[in-house]
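Dear support,

We are seeing what looks like truncated structure output for some complexes. This example has two components. We would appreciate it if you could run it in full and send us the complete token output so we can diff it against ours.
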Amino acid sequence: MKINGTEIINCNDLNPQRETVLSGEYTTCNGETRADVVGWKYSDLTLAWDALPETELLKIYAASGETAFTFQDPVDGEVTENVIVTIKSPVQCRFIENGIALWKNISVTVRFLDAHN
Amino acid sequence: MHTIDTENSKKIRHKMEVICGLDAASGVTGTVTATGAYALDSNKIQDIGLIPKLADLAGDGFPLDGSRACYSDSPDELTKYGYQSADIADEDGDLSTPLVITVTASDLGEITIIFEEMSTFGFSYQLDSGSAVEKDVADRIMLDCTGHASLVITIDKWTPGSRAKLARIFMGKCYQFNNDNLVSCILTLRAGLTVEPTLPFSEIEIQGHIMNDISDEISYIPDNSPIWYSSGYPGDMSAMRKFYLQKEIPIEYNDKIAVIKGYDETYKLDSDFLAQYVTLNYGYSKRDLYRLFKAILTAAGITYTAESEPTGASGYADNYFLFKDSTRRDVIAFLQNLIPIRFVDAGIPYLFHSASRHNVWRINDYSKVENEIEQHINEILVKCYSALENATSETIETVTATTGEFFEQTYSDYYTGISVTNAIVHSVGLNYVTFKALSNGDCVVTGKLIEIYKDTDEYNVVDDKEGRQADFSSIWDVDFICSGELSYLDYVQQLLNRSSKKRKFTWKGDPRMMPFDVIYLGTDDTPYTIESMTLEHSGGGLSSQIEVREGVI
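Here is the complete output from our reference environment:
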């Protein structure tokens, strides 16, 4: 996967889900929702790594605002979507292995911005 | 069943297609010729107006839903029908004689060509003696022909079994929006259903992305340019509504978003209605007033469709109406409230008189309903007069003139058959005449005085409920004087039955609905008439806020 064009080690599980995008929503007198389906978008996705090199972690944590996120979709193959990183879990454990600084138990949540027909 | 109906029955509906935009006529007048076309001669290009689809028996025929126009062998405006090939495409899609349309002008500027029926085969066009350019068929295609004097459009292949059709050539630029570049499109459609006469206009506001900077073009877009709108699903789009750009509300363009607003044609009724003296036969009063409605709308420049006129009954006496100077809007609004003749525009101007011409809708999944109760009107105060011209002419005035002297005379009374001796009359009405004296001497103005008789002091039309009084006396005094013999009091009496109960709710929205349409809510058998409706396309979805009045109006 890539974040803003930088290769990142694949996370533990990557299972992007799709959700419909509604518009023109209102509530009927029976309390039900009525709306038009205007497309779909990827649901919010949490990316987790057991361990991640510090250089890649810094790239992820530097992501601010609209960010290009490239990943493998089980239906469409490699896709690039615009996301914002909404949750960055606090990192706690840093260690050195073979001279490379690593961080353990990394987790970030991304929200997809683009809707598709 | 219509696709729109099928989708409306779903809890979550597929989004509708929207097509809307503005036709900005360039003001260039060109000529067009065609070869390989069916019964088409040279003609001037029609630069305003949308083309009805043709009732054509090629292919699968055409729907019998009134959406198609029949072709005339000698139409007044040939381009009304668009251009269709003389030949029908064979099984390979080939036209043995291609449809070739040539447009010429000293400088063509920008040209929009419009296809209303699609084909997988493309077409080609050629500017002056340049090389031919291939292009796919699409709804609207803009061609920049600036600096060129000739455009040749060639269609040599089309859908097998069909005639090639090009609906329209438009001399100007077309700003078109659909779901891909539309931010929002809001239509507010209105009818005046209050007892006091009103004829509100309907309006549209389009917000859409235009990536090419149009800042320099906006000021050259003509006033009254048509703004059009249709939505629905492929193969089941609503009738095209037309609104018009007004110079009072120019186009805004900021951050690549254009905001375009326009009104329906009822704005044209804000024009002078000059006094008229008309004879109505009591037995044909509704028919004759229907004709008067049509004459007023036509004189205002409104293009509309109309239900066939009401029938009447012979053997009744003539009655005489004097309509004093007013505005066309006031006359239409007032008469519409007194007699069962309805004019609705909302982008699709239509005149009708029978209750069966209401579209009827039953909707289920509406939002919580808000009730609004107006104070009931239990008494209407009116005054009725007779207006009758005298049998003989009388001298209105004598003016002393010199040769060639010009006069513009107005009178407080009304006369028929005004004439002037020793003068050439330029224009004449019931209470004015303009003329130029032929020679030195007296010019005598004569006419038959229209005498106004007050039948009775006033009529109070009342019911037995509590409420307030509506005073129509000033309206009748100032603008409308009718014979007491013609029983308009019956109609006034009916006005008291008009409900003061209004209901408002949100619904998913249907672009086919019109003001004056009748709605039933859920299983309730109480009919409601649509008084106003806002259709809002935003974020790709559609919803509507509907305001109805109880009863069929």
